[in-house]
Design a protein that fits this description.
Distance between the termini: 33 Å
Largest sheet: 4 strands, antiparallel
Helix content: 25-40%
Radius of gyration: 15 Å
Strand content: 15-25%
Number of strands: 4
Order of helices and strands: EHHEEEHH
């Protein structure tokens, strides 16, 4: 996985294809939203490309300081259905962990639905361990 340093038409089109495979309730980000992510000091947008150079996956690494240290959080991992099983997800997660380590984070967190069996196997294989913690969410009405 490599960092997306600029927002191109290809990047916008890739997210239009990828995000519906990740979430049926969230619209894909447009140019402005992707610019905000790429320009942010606290988020790193990583993409994986196939041999032809087409974007087939992405994840966002959030890095932020809290009183207990630098936190690293992986969000929105998605690999195109047509490219699954070819190593793009692994490349993205490994790149994110390396980036978090280089930034000084002591750990990297992520969440994954139990139904995403292949993703959960990948995370465990890469050294992630399930934590005994509750995850809570409040949904804000827009």
């Amino acid at each position: 996985g490599s960092e997306a340093a600029e927002v191109t038409t290809e990047l916008v089109e890739a997210f239009a294809r990828l995000i519906p495979q990740l979430s049926s309730s969230s619209p894909p980000p447009g140019h402005a939203e992707l610019m905000e992510i790429v320009a942010s000091a606290t988020s790193v947008l990583l993409v994986a490309s196939d041999k032809a150079g087409s974007i087939v996956g992405s994840l966002t690494l959030a890095l932020f300081r809290v009183p207990t240290g630098l936190r690293a959080w992986i969000e929105d991992v998605v690999v195109d259905e047509s490219a699954r099983g070819a190593g793009a997800g692994e490349a993205l997660v490994v790149a994110a962990v390396q980036r978090a380590d280089a930034a000084g984070a002591s750990s990297v967190d992520l969440t994954s639905r139990p139904s995403r069996e292949a993703a959960n196997r990948l995370y465990r294989r890469l050294g992630f361990e399930a934590r005994t913690t509750n995850v809570y969410r409040v949904t804000l009405v827009r």
